[in-house]
Design brief:
InterPro entries: aa-tRNA-synth_II, aa-tRNA-synth_II/BPL/LPL, Phe-tRNA-synth_IIc_asu, Phe-tRNA_ligase_II_N, Phe_tRNA_ligase_alpha1_bac, Phenylalanyl-tRNA_Synthase, tRNA-bd_arm. With 337 residues, this protein is an alpha+beta fold. The protein folds into two domains: 86 residues; 228 residues, Bira Bifunctional Protein, Domain 2 (BirA Bifunctional Protein, domain 2, 2-Layer Sandwich), CATH 3.30.930.10. Helix content is 40%, strand content 18%. The strands form two sheets. Strands 1-5-6-10-9-8-7 form a seven-stranded mixed beta sheet, sandwiched between helices. The protein is elongated and about 110 Å long.
């Protein structure tokens, strides 16, 4: 196929084109980098005489210009035709539109707001403590010296400068006692970190909630009241609680707070592991040494500390079997809330 034949074929094809995508295909076929016109241009250097090369170049460029003109003319025709079709089409402005997809608040964030509102009504103020913490606030001032065996329970992650990624929200206790004078009512809801294997019930990053109340004559009765009030608000009015003796170095006495399984009401089921009860929280009266470390006289004042894992409590409330769902960002899970 020579140049003249290629021009005739190109102009004929362009005249028959009926859409913009077809027109683009024709343009690439004839004027693209590997198109027919460029192939002719690449053969010019093979001509033996300078005069012939000059004539061939001028003629091929003229053909290229004719094809470009035809393409531009056809492009205008097709666009005008498209606009006319739009003008003729009907559009019902009263028809309902497509509803956009909307997001929702993360279940842990919802739960945080509920917990914050509940304890704010009881006079507690939300406070924060560092995630990267000095060893004394995370352990030492909480009655856990360097050689204390209970340190092994926290699986702590340390930085090279000696600071730790806090293992619990209790690192706020002495810091807040040193800032304030009794009565002290503070709460914190934040993340903690431990060197743990990830499984359906454990994670290296998790959330804790804790309250600290320091005043005159604070007793286990008030601790029981807080536990019952909050757990009934979360799990329902039928919820029963119990205290079991449990050891924590920074409280004395210490208790584990259990709640009756809301699904089987104590009979035993798959969700509660056939126990009938869930361990919900850890609590106790603040150890006198911790009060001293916070600058408070334990002979005049006493205090309580009460905390739980919101992840676990929400798993129990919603029947969720894997803690990792909260942190994976899977929309199939999050859209259920």
């Amino acid at each position: 196929m020579n140049v003249v034949e290629a021009e005739g074929k190109a102009l004929a094809e362009i005249a028959q084109v009926s859409s913009l995508p077809e027109l683009e295909e024709a343009r690439l076929r004839y004027l693209g980098r590997n198109g027919i016109v460029n192939q002719f241009l690449s053969e010019i250097p093979e001509l033996p005489r300078q005069e012939d090369r000059k004539k061939a170049g001028g003629f091929i460029n003229a053909v290229k210009g004719n094809i470009e003109t035809a393409l531009e003319k056809k492009d205008r025709e097709l666009r005008q035709k498209s606009l006319k079709e739009i003008d003729r089409s009907s559009f019902d402005v009263t028809a309902p539109g497509l509803a956009p997809q909307t997001g929702s608040v993360h279940p842990l964030t919802k739960f945080r707001e509920f917990v914050r509102d509940t304890f704010t009504k009881l006079g507690f103020e939300e406070v924060y403590a560092p995630h990267l913490e000095e060893d004394e606030y995370n352990f030492g001032l909480l009655n856990i010296p360097p050689d204390h065996p209970s340190r092994d329970l926290w699986d702590t992650l340390y930085l090279e400068d000696g600071r730790a990624m806090r293992t619990h929200t209790s690192n706020m206790q002495v810091r807040e006692m040193r800032k304030r004078k009794p009565p002290i009512r503070v709460m914190t809801f934040d993340r903690c970190f431990r060197y743990e294997n990830v499984d359906p019930h454990h994670s290296h990053t998790f959330t804790q909630f804790e309250v600290l109340y320091v005043d005159k004559d604070v007793s286990m009765g008030q601790l029981r009241f807080l536990s019952d009030l909050f757990l009934k608000a979360v799990l329902g009015e039928k919820t029963r609680t119990r205290f079991r003796p449990k050891y924590y170095p920074f409280v004395e006495p210490g208790v584990g707070v259990d709640a009756l399984c809301p699904f089987c009401e104590g009979k035993g089921c798959r969700i509660c592991g056939m126990e009938g009860w869930f361990e919900i929280a850890g609590a106790g009266l603040v150890h006198p040494q911790v009060l001293k470390n916070g600058g408070i006289d334990p002979k005049e004042y006493s205090g309580l500390a009460w905390g739980f894992g919101p992840d676990r409590m929400l798993m129990i409330k919603q029947g969720i079997e894997d803690i990792r769902y909260f942190y994976e960002g899977d929309l199939r899970f999050l859209k259920q809330f």
